[in-house]
Amino acid sequence: MLRKVILNFLPILLLSFAGVAQTKDSAASQFRLSAYLDAYYARYSDSVGVGNFQKFAAESPKHNELGLNVAQITASYTATKVRATITLHYGDLITSAWSPVYNMIQEANMGIQLHPKLWLDAGFFKTHIGTEALLPKDNIATSISIITLYEPWFQSGAKLTYAPNDKYLFSLHVLNGYNTFVDNNSKKSVGITAFYAPTDKMSFGYYNLVGDEMSDTFKSSHVRFLNNLVVNYQITPQLKALAGFDYISQQNSQIADATKTASIYSAILTLKYQMHKKMSVYGRFEMMSDADGMLTPVITDAAGKLTGVKCTGYTAGFEAKITESSYFRLEGRDLLMDNDQQIFRNDGNMKSSRLECMFNFGIWF
């Protein structure tokens, strides 16, 4: 199916970009095709049945199965005054966690230059939110933390980007909604990106999104305000740190009192140590609390109380770079819910923790 879609789209892309290349910008224009593949084998202590996706499914979501996380192809065009990108993708990661509408489109957008430092882009985008990205190749770890799964991964709308130099970048986003390509009400969401890199070794990013995702039939306001702070720091030439902090609030959304504001808070700390030019080890700590089930599934805990997901996780991994554009990773994670949240099944017993192990091989060109 993926091959059929690519073959149908590719001639259109080539003709379109070839036509654009005949403009006065042709000397400065560039057309590029690229591809990325990630294959996996994973094991989980949770028993969900053969061929089923695990709870909190994203990367490597099936137990005891050789699978394909993602196979994608990207066509991009850049020139002095215009730019465009389209990415088509397929795989278990996409089936389990991507938009059910326009599922095979990862990105499809174009932009025009309003000023040498100012661009206006519109269409379908990967999210501007998050400490971790969608694809394993763009992250230190292969798996993503639970908070990343429930933050926006994809969005549609328009953005205005101002990049005065390599140290600063600012964007204003007007979007259809939270983690959606197609709007579900008449309201729009807005967000900002503010990035600052004071040195080559350190950068700070603040990202937010504000909007109401409830149906127009609701009379009360349910404005959701997501705040995401990301810090990158190259501590030594071999040691890198990535930290992320999130706070999300939503009006009139508490389980115990629907007139009060619900909140989520989370933290991620990831360390990567480059022990050899082609080999590294990494570790990650994550925690998240969504006591009111604002974004995560509502659970009836062992005490009979309704609650959202509250968890911590510990990840450790090894990466070997076969080439500059390929990797092999071996990774394990211990995901622990609150003791009363026994949502995993192991040997016929319900438990509050899950062990994970995944092998991944990725290449891009």
What would you say this structure looks like, in words?
The protein has helices at residues 2-20, 92-97, 146-150; strands at 30-44, 65-78, 82-90, 105-115, 118-126, 154-162, 168-175, 189-199, 202-212, 223-234, 239-250, 262-276, 279-289, 299-300, 306-307, 310-323, 326-337, 344-346, 349-351, 353-364. The protein has one domain: Porin, CATH 2.40.160.10. It starts with a helix and ends with a strand. A 16-stranded antiparallel barrel has the order 1-2-3-4-5-6-7-8-9-10-11-12-13-16-17-20. A hairpin with a 2-residue loop joins strand 4 (105-115) and strand 5 (118-126). By secondary structure, it is mainly β. It is built from 3 helices and 20 strands. The radius of gyration is 21 Å and the shape is globular. Helix content is 8%, strand content 53%.
The SSE string, one letter per element, is: HEEEHEEHEEEEEEEEEEEEEEE
The level-1 CATH class: Mainly Beta
How would you state the average pLDDT, rounded?
93
| CATH level-3 fold name | Porin
Strand percentage, roughly? over 45%
Q: Strand sequence of the main sheet, in spatial order?
A: 1-2-3-4-5-6-7-8-9-10-11-12-13-16-17-20
| Uncertain residue ranges | 9-24
Q: Which word captures the global form?
A: globular
Radius of gyration, whole Å: 21 Å
Largest beta sheet, briefly?
A: 16 strands, antiparallel, barrel
Number of DSSP helical runs: 3
Which architecture name does CATH use?
Beta Barrel
Percent helix range? under 10%
**CATH superfamily membership:** Porin
